[in-house]
Design goal:
The chain is an alpha+beta fold. It has one domain (3-191). The chain is 21% helix and 40% strand. It has helices spanning 3-17, 44-47, 171-191, and strands at residues 29-32, 38-42, 52-56, 58-61, 64-72, 75-76, 79-80, 82-92, 97-100, 115-119, 125-131, 138-149, 163-168. It has a 5-stranded mixed beta sheet with strand order 3-13-12-8-10. β4 (58-61) and β5 (64-72) form a beta hairpin. The model is unreliable at 1-24 (pLDDT under 50).
Length: 192
Amino acid sequence: MNKLLALSIGAAVALCSAGWAQHHDDDLVPGYDTDDYLVLIEPHEIAEPPYVLQVLWEEVAPGVFLADVGFTLHHEGEDPILSRVSFLQTDVSPGLFGVVEGEVDPIFGLGTPGILSLSAPDNGHFHVTFTAPDNSFRFLRFRLVDGVAFDDGRPLNDSLITYEIQFVPEPTSWLGLLAGAGFFAARRRKKA
């Protein structure tokens, strides 16, 4: 994919997502376990086996499909659990791109930096708007790396788990695809 096309996608995402992204209860929230390994602690769908979160594509304009995913540091009282952590892309579907809200250049996708870092106190929450050229199934796999505990500044072990976000077609889009397939099948039978 050439740089001009990637920049065009980034600009379209930034324009289409202005005011669209909002805080969700299913933000990805990292923490660490009793052995000091980085883990996701919320939402429970991705924090537990099989470590997969499904997100629906949302059609925001005819033929423009976006999905918003929040990334945030967990707080216990006033203080966060982590002072720093990064989400490192390990694998991504071709054609899937993620752009941090308010930015233009993709941060996730083939040929991108593939890493999003959270740090306390100022950069502890981001929304990433994902887009693809169509409404089909896509995925992003990642690990948690470079974590530091907030309370005592000790470095934490990178996650042993590879997490996956699956971007799935809207049910209405699936119905439209099925209806279209049925229409063409009926038309072919009528011609025969």
